[in-house]
Amino acid sequence: MRSTEEGLQAVDQLVRTYSHSCSWFLGPFYSLVRLFHPDYIKPLLLAPASITVKDELFYGFLRPWLGQSLLLSNGEDWSRRRRLLTPAFHFDILKNYVKIFNHSSDIMHSKWRRLVAEGESRQDMFNHISLMTLDSLLRCTFSYNSNCQESSSEYIAAIFELSTLVIERRGRILHHWDYLYWRSPEGQRFKQACSVVHGFTRTVVQERRAQLLHRGEPESHTDTTGGEEKKKKRVADFIDLLLLSKDEDGHGLTDEEIKAEADTFMFGGHDTTASGISWVLYNLSQHQDYQDRCRAEVNDLLQDRKTEDLDWSDLSSLPFTTMCIKESLRLHSPVSAVTRRYTKDMTVPGGRVIPQGSICLVSIYGNHHNPEIWPDPDVYNPMRFDPENSKDRSSHAFIPFSSGPRNCIGQKFAMAELRVVVALTLRRFRLTPGGVEVRRLPQLVLRAEGGLWLTLETLDTPISSPHISPLLLVAKFLN
């Protein structure tokens, strides 16, 4: 199992050879079943949460960082957390985050315009977009303005360090044993980075709980009456919502539980979304006709407006852009696989049984590239997601956010940010290939070896958003 371009090509060969699944052995230590057909994946992902367990082989390395969070917990503990966290992702809450997505995009685009004006039009999308999604998440999670798109931060550096170390540990079999890992230089670096991240989150949680006790609850949304916005208290962010959540017995989350969920939201929300946005822009750079059609859709939506900001209601008015996003999520899924264990035997088609306790690797990549489900699977074709072309397709043919009771709780958040950032980027820039061979790099999320380089061309679009930075105006003038 290689985290390289060749490793993904080997998965392609597996899918062509075995069609739906195969057994896989990692030396004398581990065995697992790899599945890459929707008919076989569906009964596994739809299995009740009560018999579904996150295995330690793939998820255990995250536990020192993310604790007993929603991502890693099981059984009744997981069920309780899911019930408590679900309201934090209600669309009424997500509406407030769209403003943040606009603002973080403006900062990134201001920087891009400045770089283009200075003659540096070729840029690594992952580098810029990862910082932009981190900026958004820090604002959505903690109401914290990190300025991370323009300056470095110990907290941001620690998150990047932890992500890298998890991948490195997975590839070194001797480091799978805690006794050896925590005595290695890598293990010591992991502990130090965890200390930085946990210290930041713990401080924010404790300070915010104290504020709530003294000031009362913030508003989770802003009401409008007669077209005029009422002045309200500070809008609730993710930490507020976790602090205020109560279960059916009136019990909330402890500070340690809130810290684990906030750390998980930061881990799961920035890299995956950055990968998704970067690959959408890459695919559209390769297909100028689709890019032009998306741009026309966005421009039609925003014409005659006093601001370039998108709001929640606009997101449903971008059907073709959404089709392009979905096809990119199929072709370049940010997460290439998820793994599960089951506390009972699981039956799949053909009378086959996966024994209790086996690790099941659901290959999202293999499923999305299975030629039995997707003709010409390596071709980027957004029309696959035209409603007319999708109606007879298996419900589990497209699973970028997994599926079933343990699907990604933040998928609406991610899709909203994808739409906003892609739409505003295409309105303001034309993207063309960066002139470098792109080799995929499947790590915690799908990246590109050496970065994903594209060439930016500034487009002449109206600038009237009230929070567009002065740098953007100057760069536009210079350009």
From TrEMBL:
Residues in coiled coil: none
Reactions catalysed according to its record: androst-4-ene-3,17-dione + 3 reduced [NADPH--hemoprotein reductase] + 3 O2 = estrone + formate + 3 oxidized [NADPH--hemoprotein reductase] + 4 H2O + 4 H(+); testosterone + 3 reduced [NADPH--hemoprotein reductase] + 3 O2 = 17beta-estradiol + formate + 3 oxidized [NADPH--hemoprotein reductase] + 4 H2O + 4 H(+)
This protein's record includes keyword Metal-binding: yes
Gene3D superfamilies named among the record's database cross-references: Cytochrome P450
Keyword Metal-binding assigned: yes
EC numbers, comma separated: 1.14.14.14
Names of required cofactors: heme
Function: Catalyzes the formation of aromatic C18 estrogens from C19 androgens.
Protein name in UniProt: aromatase
Taxonomic source organism: Oncorhynchus mykiss (Rainbow trout)
Lineage: Eukaryota, Metazoa, Chordata, Craniata, Vertebrata
